[in-house]
Fold this sequence. Notes:
Elements: E1 6-17, E2 21-22, E3 28-29, E4 37-40, H1 42-56, H2 73-84, H3 95-110, H4 112-117, E5 118-121, E6 129-132, E7 135-137, E8 140-145, E9 149-155, E10 169-187, H5 189-195, H6 199-211, E11 223-234, H7 243-247, E12 250-254, E13 266-270, E14 273-274, E15 279-284
Parallel strand pairs: 11-15
Antiparallel strand pairs: 1-10, 1-11, 2-3, 4-8, 5-6, 7-10, 8-10, 9-10, 12-13, 13-14
Amino acid sequence: MLDKRYDFVFYFDVxxxxxxxxxxAGNLPRVDVETGxxxxxDVCLKRKVRNYIQVVKQNEAGYDIFVKEKAVLNNAIDAAxxxxxxxxxxxxxxxxxxxxxxxxxxxxxxxxxVRAFGAVMTTGDKGAGQVRGPIQLTFARSVEPVVISxxxxxxMAVTNEKDIDKERTIGRKFTIPYGLxxxxxxxxxxxxxxxxxxxxxxxxFWEALEQMFELDHSxxxxxxxxxxxxxFEHAMPLGKVPAHSLFEKVSCERVTEGPARSFMDYRITLDxxxxxxxxxxxxxx
Length: 285
C-alpha cells in the first residue's frame, strides 16, 4: 500500500494533429476561448492510460479495465456481486450495504482503473457503491496559445450510388501545428489504501504516462509524445507542502523566436536547473 503522497507535473506535445477534439464544436481541437490556450481533458488522458494498461497487462489478474470500448458496465458489476454475495439475503437489516461493500472491494481487486481513478457503480440493480480514486488529474493546458489549422481533404470514392458521377468528395481536417501541454496530478495515499492501489500499481501508472502515446498513434492525432515528468514524493501520507508551491518550481520558457514548431523551442527547468531525463523524482519533507 502507499504510505506517501505524490504530486506531479507532466508535459506532452502534439505536432500536426488534434490531441482532443470537441464533439460539440465539430471535433475542433479544444481551446480556452479567452486565451487561445489548447486544452486536453483529464478524461482523455485517463483513456490513454486505460488503453495502455489494457494492452500491456492483458490477461493479468487484477489489471482488467472497467471502462473500455463496448463494455457493459452493469454486467461487470453484477459479476463481481455474484462472486462475493452468492447466498446473501439482501432483505435482512444492513445486509444490502454489506453486500455492496463486498462487491466494491472485488471491483477494486479486479479492475485497475477502478482502484486508480475511481468509479460510480450504482447504475444497476446490484450496485457496488461509489469509489473515489487516489489519482486525480487536471485538464492539460498548452503553455502558449495554439493555432488551429483547417485542411481540405478529398476522397476518390463516394458513399452513395447517387453520387457516382461526382469526381470526388470533400472533407475537413483540423490540426494544431505544434503545442506543448502541461497537466498536474495528485495521488492520495489515504484513498489508495481504501481502494487497494499499491506501489506496483503506481509503477505501472508512471510507465503508462511515459509510453501511452506510443500505443495511441493515429493520423488524426498527429505526432504526440511524452516529454517531461516531475514527481514530488512526500515523506508522509498527508505531506507538509501545498501542491501549488511545488508546481511553481517547474517552469517552461521559450528559447527561440517566432512560432514554436518543436519541443526544442522550449526549455523546462526544475528550480531553474535543466534536467535531461524524462522522469525526475523530488523528495519533499
